[in-house]
Amino acid sequence: MEEQKKKIKKPLGFARLIPKKCIACGARCEVECKPLAITMNDVGEPIIDLEKCTGCRRCLKVCPVDALEMYFTPEQLKQLEEWELARKASATAPQAAEVRPVEEETKAAAKFKEYSGVWVYVEQTDGKPAIVSGSYWGPGPI
Ligand code: SF4
Ligand code: SF4
Protein backbone atom coordinates (compact mmCIF):
# COMPACT_ATOMS: atom_id res chain seq x y z
CA MET A 1 0.00 0.00 0.00
CA GLU A 2 2.79 2.37 0.98
CA GLU A 3 4.54 1.38 -2.23
CA GLN A 4 1.50 2.40 -4.30
CA LYS A 5 1.34 5.76 -2.61
CA LYS A 6 4.95 6.53 -3.51
CA LYS A 7 5.03 9.33 -6.05
CA ILE A 8 6.39 8.22 -9.40
CA LYS A 9 8.82 10.71 -10.84
CA LYS A 10 8.56 11.52 -14.52
CA PRO A 11 11.81 10.55 -16.23
CA LEU A 12 13.30 13.33 -18.34
CA GLY A 13 15.45 11.29 -20.69
CA PHE A 14 18.78 12.25 -22.20
CA ALA A 15 19.81 14.43 -25.09
CA ARG A 16 21.49 12.87 -28.10
CA LEU A 17 22.77 14.02 -31.44
CA ILE A 18 20.88 12.97 -34.58
CA PRO A 19 23.54 11.69 -36.98
CA LYS A 20 24.50 13.99 -39.85
CA LYS A 21 22.33 16.88 -38.72
CA CYS A 22 24.80 19.03 -36.81
CA ILE A 23 26.19 21.94 -38.83
CA ALA A 24 28.84 22.82 -36.24
CA CYS A 25 27.20 26.15 -35.57
CA GLY A 26 29.76 27.22 -33.00
CA ALA A 27 28.85 25.16 -29.95
CA ARG A 28 25.57 26.85 -29.04
CA CYS A 29 24.44 23.65 -27.35
CA GLU A 30 27.62 23.45 -25.28
CA VAL A 31 27.25 27.06 -24.12
CA GLU A 32 23.63 26.45 -23.11
CA CYS A 33 24.29 23.25 -21.15
CA LYS A 34 24.46 24.33 -17.50
CA PRO A 35 25.56 20.98 -16.05
CA LEU A 36 28.49 20.96 -18.50
CA ALA A 37 27.38 17.69 -20.02
CA ILE A 38 28.44 18.74 -23.53
CA THR A 39 31.92 18.93 -24.96
CA MET A 40 32.70 19.45 -28.63
CA ASN A 41 34.66 17.05 -30.78
CA ASP A 42 37.29 18.21 -33.27
CA VAL A 43 34.73 18.80 -36.04
CA GLY A 44 32.52 20.94 -33.80
CA GLU A 45 29.87 18.38 -32.94
CA PRO A 46 28.63 17.78 -29.41
CA ILE A 47 29.54 14.78 -27.28
CA ILE A 48 27.04 14.33 -24.47
CA ASP A 49 28.05 12.92 -21.12
CA LEU A 50 25.05 10.94 -19.87
CA GLU A 51 26.40 10.98 -16.34
CA LYS A 52 25.91 14.75 -16.32
CA CYS A 53 22.90 15.24 -18.62
CA THR A 54 19.86 16.20 -16.57
CA GLY A 55 17.39 16.05 -19.46
CA CYS A 56 16.68 19.78 -19.25
CA ARG A 57 16.34 20.16 -23.06
CA ARG A 58 18.05 23.51 -23.18
CA CYS A 59 20.43 22.30 -25.87
CA LEU A 60 17.49 21.24 -28.06
CA LYS A 61 16.01 24.70 -27.84
CA VAL A 62 19.10 26.52 -29.05
CA CYS A 63 20.12 24.21 -31.86
CA PRO A 64 19.36 26.04 -35.13
CA VAL A 65 18.90 22.83 -37.13
CA ASP A 66 17.14 20.55 -34.62
CA ALA A 67 20.13 18.25 -34.56
CA LEU A 68 19.45 17.11 -31.00
CA GLU A 69 16.66 14.97 -29.64
CA MET A 70 15.65 13.37 -26.37
CA TYR A 71 15.59 9.64 -25.82
CA PHE A 72 14.72 7.30 -22.98
CA THR A 73 16.53 4.21 -21.76
CA PRO A 74 14.40 1.04 -21.43
CA GLU A 75 14.23 1.64 -17.64
CA GLN A 76 13.10 5.21 -18.20
CA LEU A 77 10.49 4.07 -20.72
CA LYS A 78 9.09 1.67 -18.14
CA GLN A 79 9.08 4.43 -15.53
CA LEU A 80 7.41 6.77 -18.02
CA GLU A 81 4.67 4.20 -18.59
CA GLU A 82 4.11 3.88 -14.83
CA TRP A 83 4.10 7.66 -14.45
CA GLU A 84 1.50 7.96 -17.25
CA LEU A 85 -0.72 5.32 -15.62
CA ALA A 86 -0.45 7.02 -12.22
CA ARG A 87 -1.26 10.38 -13.79
CA LYS A 88 -4.36 9.00 -15.52
CA ALA A 89 -5.48 7.26 -12.34
CA SER A 90 -5.17 10.43 -10.27
CA ALA A 91 -7.00 12.43 -12.97
CA THR A 92 -10.00 10.08 -12.85
CA ALA A 93 -10.01 9.49 -9.06
CA PRO A 94 -12.51 11.67 -7.20
CA GLN A 95 -10.86 14.42 -5.23
CA ALA A 96 -11.07 14.27 -1.42
CA ALA A 97 -13.34 17.30 -1.31
CA GLU A 98 -15.77 15.65 -3.71
CA VAL A 99 -16.14 12.53 -1.61
CA ARG A 100 -18.57 13.28 1.19
CA PRO A 101 -18.90 10.53 3.75
CA VAL A 102 -22.30 8.87 3.77
CA GLU A 103 -22.82 9.98 7.37
CA GLU A 104 -22.28 13.59 6.38
CA GLU A 105 -24.74 13.25 3.48
CA THR A 106 -27.37 11.82 5.82
CA LYS A 107 -26.89 14.64 8.31
CA ALA A 108 -27.21 17.26 5.57
CA ALA A 109 -30.39 15.63 4.24
CA ALA A 110 -31.88 15.53 7.76
CA LYS A 111 -31.06 19.22 8.27
CA PHE A 112 -32.77 20.19 5.01
CA LYS A 113 -35.89 18.27 6.07
CA GLU A 114 -36.32 20.74 8.96
CA TYR A 115 -36.82 23.45 6.36
CA SER A 116 -39.24 21.68 4.05
CA GLY A 117 -42.23 23.84 3.28
CA VAL A 118 -40.39 27.05 4.18
CA TRP A 119 -40.44 29.73 1.52
CA VAL A 120 -37.61 32.25 1.45
CA TYR A 121 -37.83 35.55 -0.39
CA VAL A 122 -34.56 37.37 -0.93
CA GLU A 123 -34.20 40.62 -2.78
CA GLN A 124 -31.26 40.41 -5.14
CA THR A 125 -29.38 42.54 -7.59
CA ASP A 126 -27.17 40.93 -10.25
CA GLY A 127 -27.43 37.60 -8.46
CA LYS A 128 -26.26 38.99 -5.10
CA PRO A 129 -28.66 38.99 -2.13
CA ALA A 130 -29.45 42.34 -0.53
CA ILE A 131 -27.59 42.90 2.76
CA VAL A 132 -30.81 43.03 4.76
CA SER A 133 -31.65 39.47 3.66
CA GLY A 134 -29.19 38.12 6.22
CA SER A 135 -31.40 39.40 9.04
CA TYR A 136 -34.12 36.93 8.09
CA TRP A 137 -31.93 33.87 7.72
CA GLY A 138 -32.41 31.29 10.41
CA PRO A 139 -34.45 28.20 11.26
CA GLY A 140 -37.96 28.34 9.86
CA PRO A 141 -41.07 27.97 12.01
CA ILE A 142 -42.24 24.37 12.40
S1 SF4 B 1 19.46 18.10 -22.02
FE1 SF4 B 1 20.29 19.72 -20.69
S2 SF4 B 1 21.81 18.71 -19.47
FE2 SF4 B 1 21.39 17.35 -21.17
S3 SF4 B 1 22.92 17.84 -22.69
FE3 SF4 B 1 21.13 19.11 -23.14
S4 SF4 B 1 21.46 21.04 -22.08
FE4 SF4 B 1 22.89 19.54 -21.24
S1 SF4 C 1 23.64 23.60 -31.48
FE1 SF4 C 1 23.11 22.07 -33.01
S2 SF4 C 1 24.21 22.65 -34.85
FE2 SF4 C 1 25.13 23.75 -33.14
S3 SF4 C 1 26.81 22.45 -32.50
FE3 SF4 C 1 25.09 21.92 -31.24
S4 SF4 C 1 24.11 20.21 -32.34
FE4 SF4 C 1 25.50 21.21 -33.77
Quick overview:
With 142 residues, the chain is α+β, with helices and mostly antiparallel strands. The chain has helices at 2-5, 28-32, 58-62, 74-92, 102-113; strands at residues 14-17, 38-40, 46-48, 68-71, 124-125, 128-129.
Description:
- The chain is of the alpha+beta class and 142 residues long.
- It has two domains: 2-92, Alpha-Beta Plaits (2-Layer Sandwich); 102-136, no CATH class.
- The protein is 32% helix and 13% strand.
- It is built from five helices and six strands, in the order αβαββαβααββ.
- The strands form three sheets. Strands 1-4 form a two-stranded antiparallel ribbon.
- A hairpin with a 5-residue loop joins strand 2 and strand 3.
- It is elongated.
- The relative contact order is 0.14.
- The model has no long low-confidence stretch (mean pLDDT 84).
- One iron/sulfur cluster (SF4) binds next to helix 2.
